[in-house]
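I am hoping you can look over what I have pasted underneath with an eye to the fold:
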Amino acid sequence: MESEEFRLISPGIDHEGRLPRKYTEEGQGALKNISPPLEWYNVPQGTKSLALVVQDIDAPDPSGPIVPWTVWVVVNIPPSLKGLPEGFSGKEEEVGAGGEFAEIKEGNNDFKVPGWRGPKLPSRGHRFEFKLYALDDIPHLGRKVTKEKLLEAIQGHLLGEAVLIARAF
C-alpha cells in the first residue's frame, strides 16, 4: 500500500518545496540557522534507531565538481519519536532533559562543528536532501560523529530510507 511507505516531511517547508530563509545563514536577526521541524511516518518494523543526514547537494567545490556539503548529522534517534521540533539543533540536552531526546547526538557538519548550520548560499535554488535512515542497530560512533563514520557504520544495518528534498531561495 502506498500509505505504508516510510516517509519524511517538514511542516516548515512550504508546499512548493522551498526552505524558508530562517533555516539558512541568511535569515533575519535571531531568526537564522534554525533547524527545521521534521516528521516521519511508517518507520520500518524492527527499527532500533534512526539517523539523519542533511546535505546541500548542489554545493559548488571551488576546485571542481559539485560535492554535497553536509549541513546536519543526527544519530541515535529513538524509533518511538515521530519527529524533531523546529530549533531542536543545539538544544538536545535542554529539550530532552533525560526524556525521549536523551540519547540523540548531533554530529559534525562540514563546518566541523556539531549541529545544524544553515548554508550561506552563493546562488539561489540549491537543493537540500534530508535523508532519514532506519537501522536495525544502534551505531556506536564515539565522541566525534561525522557523516562518513555514520555511513560506514550503517552498512548492512539499513532497513529503510526516507528522503525529502527542499530548495533554498
Q: What stands out?
A: The chain has a mean pLDDT of 89. Residues 147-153 form the longest helix (7 residues).
